[in-house]
Amino acid sequence: MICGIDFTRNAHHVARRLIGTTLLIGGVGGVIVETEAYDEADEASHAFGGPRPRSAALFGPPGRAYIYRSYGLHWCLNFVCREEGHGAGVLIRAIEPTTGIAKMIARRGLDNPRLLCSGPGRLCEALAVTDALLGKRLDRPPFRLVPSEIKPVVAVGVRIGITKAASTPWRFGLRGSRFLSKPFPGASG
């Protein structure tokens, strides 16, 4: 258990539970407002088809970071879940910036709080996430996860930016947040 979340559970359970949790990396971060779940049986997942050098961390112990580059351009931060040997993870898509905003502004080169961390690449740039964090434990520095004091209202919808298994409703967001990467049209609760 990290921050009251059992990371040995399936990815869609963990993805939903992470909404409202505060994520800090090196003391910089904010409230997780958007996640997506991926599993080894899911064609859109890096774990699909079994472990490979790039995706080995997804099959490792739960509660660790899986970092990869999207299209060779942007780092993406994922949290490994399920039991060791089963590839599953949660992509952290967006946070509401709350702590270390001046550092995020300097890293991103813009001062619009809504755009600082609204998308996985933006979020990683703002939080200085690189592959140096690959495999690091989420319950140890530089990571810090803090539970929400209130029960968030979670929107559910299909994942975005993928072509395989695109209709799987494993995207979760804080309902009404203006910090989402994209709105949740027709999302259920």
How would you characterize the overall build of this protein?
The protein has one domain (11-174): Methylpurine-DNA glycosylase (MPG) (3-methyladenine DNA Glycosylase, Chain A). The chain has helices at 11-18, 101-108, 113-116, 120-126, and strands at 22-25, 28-39, 65-70, 74-80, 88-99, 143-146, 154-157, 171-174. Helices cover 14% and strands 28% of the residues. The model has no long low-confidence stretch (mean pLDDT 89). With 189 residues, the chain is an alpha+beta fold. The two termini are 25 Å apart. Strands 1, 2, 3, 4, 5, 6, 7 and 8 form an eight-stranded antiparallel β-sheet that branches. A hairpin with a 7-residue loop joins strand 4 and strand 5.
CATH architecture annotation name:
Roll
Helix content: 10-25%
Low-confidence residue ranges:
none
Q: Specify Rg, calculated over alpha carbons.
A: 15 Å
Q: Span between N and C termini? A: 25 Å
β-strand percent reads: 25-35%
Whole-number total of structural domains:
1
CATH class (first level) name: Alpha Beta
Number of strands: 8
- Please summarize the sheet with the most strands: 8 strands, antiparallel
Put simply, the count of helices is: 4
Element-by-element helix/strand order: HEEEEEHHHEEE
* Basic shape: globular
The name CATH uses for the topology is 3-methyladenine DNA Glycosylase, Chain A
CATH superfamily membership, which one? Methylpurine-DNA glycosylase (MPG)
What is the chains' assembly state? single chain
Mean pLDDT: 89
